[in-house]
Amino acid sequence: MNDQNLLLDVLAAGEARRESRRAMLKMAGTAGLAVAGASMLAACDDSGDFPGNPPPAPAPTPTPTPTPAAITDGDVLNFALNLEYLEAQFYLFAATGAGLPNDALTGAGTQGAVTGGRQVNFTDPLVAAYAREIANDERQHVLFLRSALGAARVAQPAIDIGSAANGAFSNAARAAGLVGAGVAFDPYANDENFLLAAYIFEDVGVTAYKGASPLLTNKTFLEAAAGLLAAEAYHAGLVRTVLYRKGIATPALIEATESISTARDSLDGATDLDQGVRATTSNGVTRSNIVPTDASGLAYSRSAGQVLNIVYLNRMAVTAGGFFPAGVNGTIRSSAAS
């Protein structure tokens, strides 16, 4: 009895072990199928193709567009300093026969020399006095900006204010139709030529400061720029007034301002940002045009690129030319493609 019970217990235990092994094998088989299925799906491409067909080329990763460096207040002031170097040198040579002192020319970038420039033999004492006043103002503008910028100030770049037939003044006058091919325009020859040369710069200076003012974030610098803009506007109004007064007796002077205005507008884009000093007459009443304004009576603005179009004497995107043969110093260097 005991032997029989023991045998039954052994058989029952063996059957239990076999059932356990069958269950384990079944589970292992199911898991293997799942792994194989997953591997097969992973090997298929999106269209259900199996290995053997080449996979589709991966979509190219777009190259991120580099973010242009933000223009700083220092960049704007250094751009203005380049223009002030140009104006100061022209007026100082015309009024006194000498330019800025050497210690007012140093700074970052390549320092350049001034080509041309000499004292004008003024015949009108008022024009001579105006020239000396503006020359002193422009010199102070240079010194002020250099002081405000400190060690970050740029050096004076190479400047062409000469009277050679292939120089900047002659090319500008030729573009305006004031001289013919191969003929020189000498801004130092007489009072009238000096005024027309000054007219080239002053109107541009006003539009440059107005265009730059929204770029300034520091209120102290903004106030300084407003003061510079006001001074340049006074200078421009003075030059335009004298040209208008002299043009009453010599109408060719007034027409010359219109020609220069048209030439400047041909360089800085399609928008009309310029006017000469020609008066308008309506119902027998004459109105002068000393202050060039838009329909709202506001002075025009030019971007830095448009200003460089004019001083480089080029309507394309370039980094040198005209009154700055090697370009200006600083971050803002390229004219606009207009």
Report on the architecture of this protein:
With 338 residues, this protein is mostly helical. The protein folds into two domains: 55 residues; 239 residues, no CATH class. The protein is built from eight helices and four strands, in the order H-H-E-H-E-H-H-H-H-E-E-H. The strands form two sheets. Strands 1-2 form a two-stranded parallel ribbon. Helix 2 runs antiparallel to helix 3, helix 3 packs antiparallel against helix 6 and helix 6 packs antiparallel against helix 7. The termini are far apart. The N terminus is likely disordered. InterPro entries: Ferritin-like_SF, Pigment-catalase-like, TAT_signal.
Task: Work out the count of structural domains.
Answer: 2
Strand segment count = 4
What fraction of residues sit in β-strands?
under 5%
Low-confidence runs (pLDDT<50, min 5 residues)?
Answer: 1-15, 24-52
Q: What share of residues is helical?
A: 40-55%
Question: N-to-C terminal Cα separation, in Å?
Answer: 116 Å
Order of helices and strands: HHEHEHHHHEEH
Q: Output the strand order for the largest sheet.
A: 1-2
Structural class: mainly alpha
Q: Radius of gyration from the CA trace?
A: 39 Å
How does the overall form come out from the CA principal axes?
A: globular
Number of alpha- plus pi-helical segments: 8
Mean pLDDT: 86
The main sheet comes to: 2 strands, parallel
